[in-house]
């Protein structure tokens, strides 16, 4: 995902008050993202270190009406 896409999605994956539904720009960026790659970060320290809640991030594809993530 591009830096711009990450920034567009960050309000929807940051606690305590995530934005729902995600912004159109976020969903468009997510539609071009490698969702299998996102899966690889599910249990990583990387997402939390960026202020991203992994559970909220894994829920984004469904909220954007995109195909579900592959089994992580």
Structural class: mainly alpha
Q: What is the H/E string?
A: HHHHH
As residue ranges, the low-confidence spans are none
Mean pLDDT: 91
Major sheet summary line: none
What shape does the CA trace take?
globular
Number of strands: 0
Counting DSSP H or I runs of 4 or more residues, the number of helices is 5
- Quote the distance from N terminus to C terminus: 18 Å
The Rg value, from CA coordinates, equals 11 Å
What is the helix fraction of residues, given as a range?
Answer: 40-55%
- Report the oligomer: single chain
| Percentage of residues in strands | under 5%
Describe it.
This protein has 5 helices and no strands. With 72 residues, it is mostly helical. α1 crosses α2. The two termini are 18 Å apart. The relative contact order is 0.22.
Name the descriptors.
5 helices; mainly alpha; 49% helix; single chain; 72 residues
Q: Secondary structure elements and their pairing?
A:
Layout (H helix, E strand, L loop, with lengths): L2 H7 L14 H8 L3 H6 L5 H4 L4 H10 L9
Question: What would you say about this model in short?
Answer:
The chain has 72 residues and is mainly α.
